[in-house]
Write a sequence for this structure.
């Protein structure tokens, strides 16, 4: 790694540390300020749902394999979305019959590449709007992020998007739960932290693994598939609602989702 890269990674890490402290203070303040038990919970995946992550991730998945003449296409990429690194690295190497590197080394090289791409990642259309409305439109709603990313990576990515973090009440990362998506653990834990039963939570996910995990947790699931992810359309049949973009969810649509989980 060059000195330029080391400087970049160091800068990202420092910013992430500052963000982590700020987020912790925000969460403590909101917990103390809340006087009434929340009635609805919004749980958002991060990568591919709120953050335009998958394009950079696709390049990062391929970069370590170029020297072996192998290539991850979008169909294979789609099959591993939402899964933790120890799972997807093994699955890709097995699918492409790559034995020259271990899953651990592959994941590490992916991570080194993707870390340098964090500053270029933008929020997806409609992401900030829906998070703001989820937090403010309803009297006693709470907002969580449930991401397969490790905490240090979440903090690094969000250091470039403090305006999004300002509307988040709780965050659960992949290294904080025993089993990754499509298991329900991360959504159950997110619901626990925000103090809302899973049956009163709405999950927003871009991956089949995440959508299935949300349903297994007992949540209402809104799927937002990435148009580049081919061959997995049927995998989203498990979702309660499928949209092409968060921008499709206007106030009326959001009210309708809330009504579905709060009806007595």
């Amino acid at each position: 790694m060059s000195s330029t890269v080391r400087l970049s990674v160091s800068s990202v890490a420092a910013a992430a540390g500052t963000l982590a402290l700020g987020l912790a203070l925000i969460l403590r303040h909101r917990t103390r300020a809340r006087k009434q038990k929340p009635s609805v919970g919004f749980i958002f995946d991060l990568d591919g749902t709120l953050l335009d992550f998958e394009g950079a991730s696709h390049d990062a998945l391929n970069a370590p394999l170029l020297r072996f003449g192998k290539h991850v296409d979008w169909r294979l990429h789609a099959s591993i979305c939402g899964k933790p690194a120890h799972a997807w690295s093994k699955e890709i190497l097995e699918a492409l019959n790559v034995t020259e590197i271990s899953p651990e080394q592959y994941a590490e090289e992916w991570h080194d590449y993707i870390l340098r791409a964090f500053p270029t990642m933008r929020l997806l259309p409609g992401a900030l709007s829906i998070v703001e409305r989820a937090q403010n439109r309803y009297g006693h709603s709470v907002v969580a992020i449930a991401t397969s990313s490790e905490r240090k990576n979440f903090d690094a990515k969000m250091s470039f998007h403090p305006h999004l973090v300002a509307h988040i009440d709780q965050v659960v990362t992949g290294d904080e739960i025993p089993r990754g998506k499509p298991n329900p653990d991360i959504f159950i834990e997110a619901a626990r932290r925000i103090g809302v039963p899973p049956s009163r939570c709405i999950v927003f996910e871009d991956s089949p693994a995440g959508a299935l995990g949300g349903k297994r947790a007992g949540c209402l699931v809104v799927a937002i598939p990435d148009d580049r992810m081919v061959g997995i359309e049927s995998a989203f049949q498990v979702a309660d609602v499928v949209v092409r973009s968060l921008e499709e969810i206007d106030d009326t649509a959001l009210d309708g989702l809330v009504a579905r989980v709060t009806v007595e």
The first strand starts at residue 40 and ends at 44. Confidence is low (pLDDT under 50) at residues 1-8. The two ends are 57 Å apart (CA to CA).
